[in-house]
């Protein structure tokens, strides 16, 4: 769920900010604006230390999308609407 969707769900007002913060994607933290982080399907934080902490704790597993398996971080897999598996299983 994006920040905009979460805000709308809570009946709040969403204002797009071009202010830079920190984005966590695939276990890596980089500086970005909220729109850039959302486009990359990352997780946005205003504070670098919070982004580093969350990114470091993110689990890696196998993500299943339309019968294809790929290695991914937990949050990235869920953001894409796929299913996360703890270990690679092929049948």
Helix content: 25-40%
| Mean pLDDT score | 77
Strand content: 25-35%
Tally of strands: 6
Descriptive report:
By secondary structure, the protein is of the alpha+beta class. The protein has a domain at 3-10 and 18-57. The chain has 4 helices and 6 strands; from the N terminus they run H-E-E-H-E-H-E-E-H-E. It has helices at 3-9, 34-39, 48-57, 74-79, and strands spanning 20-25, 28-33, 43-45, 60-65, 68-73, 83-85. A 3-stranded antiparallel beta sheet has the order 2-1-3. A hairpin with a 2-residue loop joins strand 1 and strand 2. The mean pLDDT is 77.
Give the gist of this structure.
This protein is of the alpha+beta class. The chain is built from four helices and six strands, in the order H-E-E-H-E-H-E-E-H-E. The protein has a domain of 48 residues.
Which terms summarize this structure?
three-stranded antiparallel beta sheet; 4 helices; alpha+beta; 91 residues; 6 strands; globular; single chain; 33% strand
Secondary-structure map with pairings?
Layout: H1 3-9, E1 20-25, E2 28-33, H2 34-39, E3 43-45, H3 48-57, E4 60-65, E5 68-73, H4 74-79, E6 83-85
Antiparallel strand pairs: 1-2, 1-3, 4-5, 4-6
């Amino acid at each position: 769920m994006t920040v905009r969707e979460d805000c709308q769900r809570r009946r709040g007002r969403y204002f797009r900010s071009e202010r830079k913060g920190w984005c966590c994607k695939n276990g890596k933290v980089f500086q970005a604006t909220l729109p850039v982080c959302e486009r990359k399907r990352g997780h946005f934080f205003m504070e670098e230390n919070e982004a580093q902490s969350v990114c470091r704790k993110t689990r890696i597993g196998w993500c299943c999308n339309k019968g294809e398996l790929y290695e991914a971080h937990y949050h990235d897999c869920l953001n894409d609407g796929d299913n996360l598996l703890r270990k690679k299983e092929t049948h």
